[in-house]
Amino acid sequence: MPPETVRASAADAPPRNGHSQSRRLASWREHHGWSAAASLRRLGTRPLGSLLTIAVMGLALALPLAFYLLLGNVQKLGDALGQGQAISVFMQPGQTAQQAQMLASQLGDRPEVAAVVVKTPQQGMEELAGMQGFSGALNTLDDNPLPYVLQLQPRSGTSAAALARMVADVRAMRSVDLVQDSGSWRQRLDALLGVGNRAVLVLASLLALAALLVVGNTVRVDIASRSEEIGVLLLVGASSAFVRRPYLYAGIWYGLFSGILAALLAVLIELALAAPVAQLSRAYDGKLQVGGLPLWLLLAVPLAAAALGWLGARVVSAWQLRNAA
Fold first, then answer.
1. What confidence tens digit (pLDDT) does each residue in 19-64 have?
2. 298 Cβ partners below 8 Å, 6+ apart?
3. Which residues fall within 8 angstroms of residue 286, CB to CB, at 6 or more apart?
4. In angstroms, rounded to a whole number, what is the distance separating the alpha carbons of residues 1 and 140?
5. Are residues 246 and 35 in contact, defined by beta-carbon separation less than 8 angstroms?
6. Domain 86-181 has CATH 2.40.10.340
7. 109 φ/ψ angles, rounded to the nearest 5 degrees
8. What is the pLDDT of residue 9?
9. How far is CA 298 from CA 210, 275, 278, 301, in A?
10. Distance between CA atoms of residues 249 and 261, nearest Å
11. CA 118 to chain CA mean position, Å
């Protein structure tokens, strides 16, 4: 048993006076530092096993990040497509330009609408004349039968349910003859994204549990291989907290390194998708702005993984030491 371990065991003895309390605190800090360093050195003594454990945990933690990245960009794709999906409002035949402007002003005040474009019957006729096969037929018309058309541009970030309510309100207006809205795909996309987000949460929970079990099993094997040393420590009066401290730090190291690996894998996935994503963005005239994982999430993953590693080591070491006592 290392001399520093014997000295540090005094950290768990009850204090007798103020000086003893100070010495106890100093010994407690010393043992934490020794435990962190010793557990890291022990990981280095078996590099293959440590690397395999870290790799398994890192891959498990990287999967939810990859799905989160995919869902976030699908949402951005839906937003980009939605920007070009204006809602066309066809007014009743015979409505005047003043009535069209009044309706455009009324609809433009709604929070769901970002902009309103009024298309006159003459503009509609010119568009039809520019289409192949329509010019000859239009020349036979005595007057222009087309109505005023209002094109409503939905405001970015508006939910599909809010747009559906607005379309229903517009259809109920007396001056409106027809409303063309391709918003059903938005509802389907929102529903699919909702299912996807819930699936990512479930997957992340299951894989976090798997990472916790991996750390717990590794610590269990480590404790079992050092059962004689642990028995000696318990016999000389070391507390369970003192004995399990190095194993808790081992769990923290496993979690921290696997979290760093998961973040690196997520960044590599982003880099691998950069070229095809840029090509897709050019196909949509730059409207599709694809983003990566936020920096705060990449920084939070190693910390969360370290906490998982600590929890797994804490549960297993407490159970093992209780049986060994």
1. 677 887 888 888 888 889 988 998 888 899 899 999 999 998 998 8
2. 263, 266, 267
3. none
4. 105
5. yes
6. no
7. -80, -10
8. 47
9. 20, 22, 22, 6
10. 18
11. 40
* pLDDT tens readout for residues 233-281: 777 877 778 888 899 999 999 999 999 999 999 999 888 887 887 787 7
3-state secondary structure 151-181: EEEECCCCCHHHHHHHHHHHHCCCCEEEEEC
Name the residue ranges covered by the structural domains of the chain: 31-79+189-324, 86-181
**Are residues 256 and 301 in contact, defined by beta-carbon separation less than 8 angstroms?**
no
* The residue to which tokens 């497509």 are assigned: 81
Burial of 285 (0-12, 13-18, 19+ CB in 10 A): exposed
Q: Which amino acid makes up residue 130?
A: G
Alpha helix ranges (H) inside the chain: 3-8, 18-45, 47-83, 97-108, 121-130, 135-138, 160-171, 184-225, 227-235, 240-283, 295-324
Paired tokens of 176: 């409106």
